[in-house]
Model the fold of this input.
Amino acid sequence: MQLNLLVLPGDGIGAEVTREAVRVLERVAQRFSHTLKLSEGLLGGVAIHKTGNPFPDETARLADAADATLMGAVGLPEFDNAPPSERPERGLLGLRKVLGVYANLRPVRTHKALIDSSPLKNHLVEGTDMIIVRELTGGIYYGTPRGVSGSGDGERAVNTMTYTRAEIARIARMAFHLARQRRKKLASVDKSNVLECSQLWRKVVVEVASEFPDVALEHVLVDNCAMQLVLNPKRFDVVLTENMFGDILSDEGAVLAGSIGMLPSASIGDKKPSGAWVGLYEPVHGSAPDIAGQNKANPLGAIGSVAAMLEYSFGLAREAAAVHSAVEEVLNSGRVTADLKPAGAPATTGQVGQAVCAAI
Ligand code: IPM
Ligand code: MG
Done:
């Protein structure tokens, strides 16, 4: 099969981790006799530097032409004081919106070999296996009106959280389908004791639930969910939530996996006319400018994102499983990057990538 994909390394450690992820893809292609057709594009701060725009038209064109997109990370400290509309992050938000990838799947699993990498007690994290389903193209990230007006004491900023019934129903359906393939438990997270948006969310989730009588649904308020994630993470199977809550809770989930560098994500939209799912694959971590260019970053989040790409965009379950077991083997060997606090000397980004390739 031909795997036609766009790589957007982005900023900071994005270039290093996507390099290893692509290397793993090349190894998979060789081992399972697929051909890889790669194009590369600009997104984020590097795109601002080269074109003045965090999401150049050319990148949109390349993403549309590819069957799947692999993204590294976006964000640079030099833009810390820039308004949202001029920041590297705006490029990623534009890409998600243009691709229409409304469902962001963020699996959070504790690997046996990494139990001691989490600052939480072993008995709490051991056996954690959940997937956070984050709505990705709506809510407060995109709602209007937004902006700043006035001056002095009257200077005022506004953002708008907004959801339609259709937006909630489609992500809820996706989450229920996933739960059906897992332990059949779905926790829908909202703030319905305060927000109208969350009240509509809860109402629509309850309606969709009637199509899935075999899945047990519970509603959890987002503040309580933040607490439950570290008190009793094993109770969660599928966690369904809106855009900003999902952003926050998935960073918290990273603590359970040992390091945010471990977390992959898959952002899925509707099917293309060709029958393939539109997909954007990105590690959950950011651009980590403090360690960029030092060959220290953990590439396993990006490599896990490649496994998700093989599975969801190309339907290659065997290939995805080969990547997962290679990652497991590398974790068991203890040759991991510094963020995972290995007993011996930490491995470099490149060494971890090489080890995964060798294990495939
Ligand atoms: C994430 C990131 C992004 C988000 C940023 C970089 C815009 O934090 O994917 O979790 O907030 O969605
Ligand atoms: Mg985030």
Q: What stands out?
A: The first helix runs from residue 14 to 31.
